[in-house]
Write a structure and sequence with these properties.
The complex is a heterodimer of chains A (607) and B (385). Chain A is mainly alpha-helical and 607 residues long. Chain A is built from 25 helices and four strands. The N and C termini of chain A lie far apart (59 Å). In chain B, strand 1, helix 2 and strand 2 form a beta-alpha-beta unit. The chains are: A mainly alpha (607), B alpha/beta (385). Chain A: Its main location: membrane.
């Protein structure tokens, strides 16, 4: 019995920690309908500013908090002014991509300034412990809880009773109307970003002190958990974010209690999916609230795509096809093989995200399903590799569609969050289902690519194989887009109510899109597995999903050629920047930001 | 001789001088062009810290190698390519190295997915992949171009089990391990050895690398009522677990794998890591000459910073690479064959390292039983804590 009390306390303690990030995310989402992926990076910046203040300037705690809050707020204002405000009239998805780019840049700047080694950030509070159940809590636990709850309350009061708060809420409900009523929307946005960033910075510092440890990898984890907590509580709902965080902490803690530590995040993400399916607006959304994303069409604005003549495409394909006949280095070929593999994934994602409007952030899961299926089929059942890869594609199509089907009723950002969670769930199932997937040890000795009995071992043959598969998939997809199916997909994306009124069954078409997309992604994963010969649960991770989405947005949503161009660009750029060593991801982030800024509809435009 | 006028004399000596410089330049060009090693490892991304530590160890070893005259008069250098420990990038790097004729062998990568994905390319390209942190049991099975000085967990874990069970007298153990290929393999070897020595395993808990909060895990550990906690962790998560264990009031003996051996473990863990026991391959006061040279050289080069386990691995790896290149020259196949020929290479981790040609690994890692006392790693004096 006493253990359950301890699990509860521990869940609430960690929930406190999540709440600090979730509140900031909720505030920004509430106003700009934007999941701020840079929030974790501001949290990171705050932690390191705190380190400088404590270790170098020896400031006392209240001053440390003020310094960190002020510096982080400044970072937030800079992000808002130079990263996001220029995008406010562009496609809704552009700011989302911009925050991803900003988080790359901030994380890299911190890493370059402070080195990637973890540092100790000693707590400035007296080290007394209070006995509570079987464990103890310290003053820092109370301070974190205090900051979380107080900030949520203050924000609640601010939003409800202050004039600027009204402006914030008005702007979040209807930007244009608010502007007509004389609300300075830019000032509102500034205020919100400043507050959220200050909160994010302070929370990074407090959590750093809590663990006596800060390192540059803490940013992505903070964002992930914060997003889960925020959505569980109801996106944009500040007090809801606190309760969502506590609930998340409890579920994780009880999950550990019942099933063990390695299942912990599985429960966090299952909670998210369940909440999204049952109550898409979050647990604490009022029923009167308008749907969070009125129409998917406003999320992805169609633009005029760049028409590339067919002969030009044919010439480009021919040039790439004969490339290995010329004396190019294997390194160039390998880089292009990576681009073709990413291209298949991007084709899949551009279909479901661009053409269908279901922006998936968990696409790496489809790769993983394809890869594991193909690897296991060829290893344990001795299925020929060519067939095994097709099997991987089919399994990915079937299982992927089945797993993602609960998110079919969701819209806009919620689809992204649900798919993000499903992606994490797949990865955790692979980690824990040892009898099939061999768990963390992974699968080694996967046979190399063969086709009709011929080994494809030389880089040129792998190159031709992956290029051919990608081109076939691209042609099929191009054909699909011009058929009535493609038109139906786009109709659902642009206006699902009108599409339904026209007699289109949304779920059926969404399933069809995911089946086709899942197949392409699964084939890509299958080829990768045979190419690498070793895979484990880390091979296909969240970063891969985010990369795929970046490719798709960069190339132009729904644009088949754009997906391929984007893949070549995003595989190629980091390789080109190799010369810059530690700086290359920083440069990559900046290039990404510039692209979003000056070509938000993607290089080739949305179709 | 008298009819040789001054001008011819000057001309002649000038010509001789020019010929002399030209000659020495050619000779210089041959010896000044350094022998190049390729490194594939993380400089950015979540594992960037380990890449940074590798560099420190490499650079120290290179300084010493050059001070001792280099490789038969030639310098040794490395080209570090950032893979972010991502298999997609490590395979591209592998092709890059394989097709670059200046690269004579490759070192790395850090994680198993990144390293083993690149192995087929190195094997087919005939370039040695020398993985010095690759403990995955299948790493060297990738082919005869895969060699590793990573301490096999089949060797290390029984030593740790012996320390915990036989020497510290722990009878009922809770094992917390990183849920990666390394952590899992280590756990399995540890559990097997500990049971052989007569201990009972009360509970094992695997956690993912990004985990920060262990309080609920520690409740599970407490409920299993062990008399000792075994941490199969790296230093950052090891320090977190130790801190939280003490915070929730667990007072059991903690015994950790050698991978926590780092000054950062003491810095991050603070008072909570006091009395933590750990088995390591070397220790600060170690009298072995190769260890003294390593530690003193490291402190002198890096402003008094104490080296850690990953610094030692990369330092040893660079020294091993130098020894291999000395025998094998710059031919890639000869270098592979030289791995089987090197004998008793001075090593911080192994004392004297010689490859077992069958497994392409080195056996017989050194063992020291340490404990943290007054915030320092010290040799365990046999007193219970």
């Amino acid at each position: 019995m006493s253990s359950w009390f301890d699990y509860t306390i521990n869940g609430l303690i960690i929930g406190n920690v999540y709440a600090l990030v979730a509140v900031g995310l909720a505030l920004i989402f509430g106003v700009s309908r934007l999941i701020n992926f840079a929030q974790g990076s501001i949290y990171l910046v705050g932690a390191y500013i705190g380190w400088v203040a404590v270790m170098q300037l020896h400031t006392p705690l209240p001053l440390t908090i003020i310094v960190v809050a002020a510096a982080a707020a400044l970072v937030g204002l800079v992000i808002e002014r130079f990263g996001l405000r220029p995008l406010q009239n562009s496609v809704r998805i552009a700011p989302l991509l911009a925050t991803i780019g900003i988080s790359f840049v901030l994380d890299q700047l911190v890493m370059l300034t402070f080195s990637p080694n973890p540092r100790a950030l000693p707590s400035q509070l007296p080290d007394v412990r209070f006995q509570l159940g079987g464990g103890t809590i310290g003053p820092l636990d109370l301070l974190i809880a205090g900051v979380g709850i107080t900030s949520a309350l203050l924000l609640f009061v601010f939003l409800r009773y202050s004039k600027l708060g009204w402006a914030v809420r008005a702007a979040s409900q209807d930007r244009d109307a608010a502007m007509q009523m004389g609300v300075d929307v830019n000032r509102v946005n500034q205020a919100v970003f400043g507050i959220a960033a200050a909160l994010g910075g302070v929370s990074g510092m407090l959590v750093g002190m809590y663990y006596n440890q800060i390192d540059t990898a803490m940013s992505l984890q903070a964002t992930l958990k914060g997003v889960v907590a925020e959505v569980v509580g109801g996106a944009g709902n500040v007090p809801g974010a606190v309760i969502g965080s506590l609930l998340l902490g409890l579920v994780e803690s009880y999950g550990v209690a019942v099933f063990g530590t390695s299942y912990r995040n599985l429960f966090a993400f299952l909670l998210l999916v369940v909440v999204l399916v049952l109550r898409p607006n979050g647990l604490f959304a009022s029923t009167r609230q308008a749907p969070p994303e009125p129409l998917t069409g406003t999320f992805i604005a169609p633009s005029r795509p760049l028409r590339i003549p067919r002969w030009a495409l044919a010439v480009a394909a021919a040039i790439f096809a004969v490339l290995p006949l010329f004396p190019v280095s294997f390194y160039v070929l390998q880089t292009l093989i990576n681009a073709w593999l990413l291209g298949m994934l991007a084709l899949s994602l551009t279909l479901v995200a661009g053409t269908m409007g279901q922006v998936s952030l968990g696409h790496a899961a489809l790769l993983a399903i394809g890869a594991y299926t193909s690897a296991l089929l060829s290893l344990t059942l001795n299925v020929p590799v060519g067939l095994a890869i097709v099997g991987g594609g089919l399994m990915s199509a079937a299982l992927g569609t089945l797993l993602i089907s609960p998110s079919f009723r969701l819209r806009g950002h919620y689809v992204s969050i649900a798919t993000l969670a499903i992606g994490e769930i797949v990865s955790l199932v692979i980690l824990n289902w040892e009898s099939v997937t061999r768990g963390p040890i992974g699968i080694s000795g996967i046979p190399p690519l063969t086709l009709f009995g011929y080994d494809l071992i030389s880089p040129s043959s792998v190159y031709w194989f992956s290029l051919a598969v990608m081109v076939v998939l691209a042609l099929l997809q191009g054909r699909l887009l011009t058929s009535h199916l493609g038109r139906s997909f786009r109709a659902i994306r642009d206006d699902d109510i009108a599409a339904r009124a026209y007699g289109l069954s949304l779920n059926r078409y969404k399933s069809l899109a995911f089946i086709f997309g899942g197949f392409a992604a699964g084939v890509s994963g299958g080829i990768a597995a045979h190419l690498y010969s070793y895979i484990n649960h880390e091979t296909f991770n969240t970063q891969q999903s985010i990369l795929a989405l970046t490719v798709v947005i960069l190339g132009g949503l729904g644009n088949v050629v754009g997906a391929i161009v984007g893949s070549v660009a995003l595989v190629g750029l980091p390789e080109v920047f190799r010369i810059a060593a530690e700086y290359r991801i920083l440069i990559y982030g900046i290039v990404l930001l510039l692209l979003v800024r000056f070509r938000p509809q993607g290089l080739l435009g949305t179709i | 001789m008298s009819n040789i006028d001054r001008r011819t004399l000057v001309k002649g000596s000038l010509a001789a001088m020019m010929a002399g410089t030209a000659f020495s330049r050619a000779a210089l060009a041959q010896s000044a062009e350094p022998i190049l090693l390729g490194i594939s490892g993380p400089l950015t991304g979540p594992n960037a810290q380990y890449g940074a530590q590798w560099k420190q160890g490499f650079d120290l070893a290179l300084d010493e190698i050059h001070a001792a005259g280099g490789i038969n008069g030639r310098k040794l250098a490395y080209q570090f390519e950032d893979s972010q420990s991502d298999p997609r990038q490590s395979v591209a790097i592998a092709q890059k190295f394989v097709s670059d004729p200046r690269i004579v062998m490759e070192l790395g990568d850090f994680s198993s997915p990144a390293s083993m994905a690149a192995s087929p390319i190195y094997q087919r390209g005939g370039l040695v992949q020398f993985g010095f942190t690759n403990s995955h049991p299948d790493f060297t099975k990738g082919g005869d171009f895969m060699w590793s000085t990573s301490v096999s967990q089949a060797d290390e874990q029984p030593l740790l089990a012996s320390y915990a069970v036989r020497r510290l007298g722990l009878k009922k153990l809770a094992v917390l391990h990183l849920n990666t290929d390394w952590g899992r393999t280590s756990r399995d070897h540890f559990v097997k050895a500990a049971k052989e020595y007569g201990a009972e395993i009360a509970v094992t808990e695997g956690y993912i690398a990004e985990e920060r909060d262990f309080r609920s895990t520690l409740v599970r550990v407490r409920d299993a009522s062990p008399d000792g906690l075994i941490l199969i962790s790296y230093y950052s998560d090891g320090a977190l677990i130790a801190r939280q264990a003490r915070q929730v009031g667990l007072k059991q003996t903690i015994c950790a794998a050698s991978s926590v051996y780092s000054p950062k473990f003491l810095e991050l863990g603070g008072e909570a890591v006091e009395d933590v026991h750990l088995g390591t391959r070397y220790f600060p006061q170690d009298p072995r000459p190769e260890v003294r040279k390593f530690i003193e050289g490291f402190k002198a080069k890096y402003n008094g910073q104490e080296p850690d386990a990953f610094n030692a691995y990369s330092y040893d790896a660079m020294n091993m690479a130098a020894a291999v290149v000395k025998i094998g020259g710059t031919d890639r196949r000869a270098i592979r064959d030289a791995f089987a020929k090197v004998k008793d290479v001075s090593s911080v981790i192994f004392g004297k390292a010689t490859f077992d040609v069958e497994s392409r690994r080195v056996k017989g890692a050194m063992n020291a039983e340490l404990v943290v006392r007054k915030g320092q790693f010290t040799l365990w004096d046999g007193k219970p804590t």
